[in-house]
Amino acid sequence: MDATIHSNSKARFILKAFLFCVVFTGLFFLLSSTINFAPAGFERLVQGTIGTVAALLTTFLFLKIDKKRLSDIGLTFERKTVVKFFVGVFIGILIMGLLAISVDISDVRIDVNPGSNVLNFLLVTAPLIPLALMEELGFRAYPLEILKDKIGIRLTIIVTSILFALYHVASGWTVASSFYGPAVWGLVFGLAAIYSNGIALPTGIHYAANLTTSAFGEATGSASIWTVKAFCRYSNERSRLGNTVSRVGSFGFCHYLY
User: Where are the alpha helices (DSSP H) in the chain?
Assistant: First the structure.
């Protein structure tokens, strides 16, 4: 009897986390219609801002239902918040560097992009910060916090990673790419959120992963720091580059560069 009650309690909290993600995703998609009115070049910044607003509104709604405050789920700004974010950036770059080492790049050529510089690159990719923040608010804040004490840390990370993948499926990604990329990264972000008791660290990792992959592009006219070209023996360079990137699971690369 007790086991049945405990099992039902777990299912109830998983359903609640699922409903939170559904409301966030629905609200985000609804508000995203305003992106069409954004000035040229500011679409991603508007998207990230809208997504962050949608995540916060959803969080306030569910916290009001629960009669809780932001501090109850660890959403507070402290002196260590910025430090944790930059530690996350360092970890994210380190992870991407290790992934790059494991990939065979003997069939591609990487050159410095003469049409870009570091400052311009950082300015152009600045929207990656709110884009990362909105997803961390949507999947590693309220959902993770209500689950970890009810179903255990291990299952919590798995559940939120699956929800993260389903969100990408709803956004138009294929099931395979959503679970091969975002779901795997969701495990990393979830571990970081649990370890640091907040979303600053996983937001930094998330931002760094997308930032690092955005540093590589195919055209010299882009803001990327480096250009990547496949050797001519491949008839379809883009396909070849896409396959190379997919082997390291960098889910931000194709989305932001193509």
Answer: 2-31, 43-66, 79-101, 118-124, 128-139, 142-151, 153-170, 175-180, 182-196, 200-214, 237-246, 253-257
